[in-house]
Design brief:
Layout (H helix, E strand, L loop, with lengths): L2 H4 L3 H20 L13 H18 L5 H43 L14
Helix pairs in contact: 2-3, 2-4, 3-4
Length: about 120
Amino acid sequence: MSEEEFFTNEDSYRFFQLVHMFQRTVMMNLGLMEYEGERFYDLNEAKEGIELLRMLQKKTAGNLDEKETQILSGVISEVQMAFVSAPERESEYKKNKEEEDKIKQAFTNPKEGPAETILEEE
């Protein structure tokens, strides 16, 4: 079943596309999706995307069918949960990125990169 068949009409499908567009934007700003090989953490932008989804939910209340209502509610719940855990993910990402950068520097510029001394036991 294609996405088009899942929805009752073209407007329903377009509504899903709009919700999905906001969802992707929020997820990208929460570091859950890479853009050009990088992860971004912009909690202000993510929060704005969540607020836009919530506004959409308020403005369309009573005008959506059951499937559309469930999709929108589910997406909002998903991105809100992801928002709560974003600071921890960002901290872990930065820590791993720093380690990765140190290793890259050791190989690309060994004279100035970090080095460890290995002592032999006698």
